Amino acid sequence: MRHISSKLIHGDLDSKNKEKYNSLKTSIYQTASFDFENSNEMEKAFRGETNDYTYSRISNPTVIELQNRLTMLSKSEDTLCVSSGMAAISNVFLTICEKGDNIITSNYLFGNTYSFFTSTLSSFGIETRFVKFDNIEELEQQSDKNTRAIFIEIPTNPQLVIYDIEKIALWAEKKGIILITDNSILTPYIFEAHKYNIDIEIFSNTKFISGGATSIGGTIQIYNSDKWKNIPKLKKEYELYGSKAFYKKLYNEIYRNVGACLSPQSAWLQLLGLETLSLRIDKVNENTLKVAQFLNDHKNVYNTEYPSLKSSKQYDLSQKYMPKGSGCLLNINLKTKENCFNFMDSFKMIRKGTNFCDNKSMVIHPSSTIYWGLDKKLKENMKIYDGTIRLSIGIEHINDIIEELNQGLNSLKM
Ligand SMILES: *Cc1c(COP(=O)(O)O)cnc(C)c1O
Fold this sequence. Notes:
7-stranded mixed sheet, single chain
């Protein structure tokens, strides 16, 4: 068996679908629709009796190649790529939830995911219940016969909280409730969902997969599961397709009707990103741990949170779920917003940006940007503090990153 880093570069070497002219790169099939030999073939394609392409909102060869490589990476049953991480989340919930249903999650969530749950899903009569996942009792109390799924980010963004997924998965297995994880921060290269009874995994390709912020995209990974039988909305599909029920409902109905397909150009950029994925993530893990150690020791930093730091309360969980390293994000506490702003404004190379998993190091003050519209109490509930900044470490030379951080910290009047 070849190593995953080789597979991501070469794809399936036994595939019969060879590139035209022996091109060593996947072609970009920049077309909306496809031609047929004759009407008979066209009819069969529309009935789904052949694998011929019809229309790029439904499937496209460049996107399919990206999906094939992501299946290799995740060891999933089925993969569907969509236009963004948020499209992955909305497609999944529209496939399993209907009016009167509820889902359970934590209030440590990516901003738009929180808004999707509390504003968008709620307007369709779907309720979101928030729990602390370190307490199974609470899960027990909050779930009922209409609970369709549990949704967890690993780790949460921006708090970097790691929940004990294995415990939650055992509980969900017992209850027959679908477990969905958001693996945008780590990708399946670091956190391997297939090992933990997770039913559905989503991630934003925009982060590490894109090769460094080249394009927007998202992925839905579906793992082997029989829990689909407990979802009323999948009743018909379960009778017809059994363990493929979720995938069939998603692919044949929701995905086509929502229309958030990935463009072939973006799929190509993300294929290119996959070729260097392991290289970049290994470097980011190495750099971020060194930066975290440096910040943790600096007298002007009140607190540093990076789960792979030996001093972190989450160190053991990080070793269990993210043994290669916990990715590019770390949080530091500088006590006041003013300190945070002065620190950020001292940078030249470290950019101010909302993205992460870029090749470039980046910084943001979450409280005044992503979460600016939330009231004080809600922010505190979500652990969004005025004195905290989030750093995303890139693949620049470690000495340059540390030098800039050091100068910025030393100039603060603490
Ligand atoms: C970025 C991100 C998303 C959304 O992805 P987009 O590609 O920006 O739509 C969802 N969840 C997490 C944890 C993210 O970091």
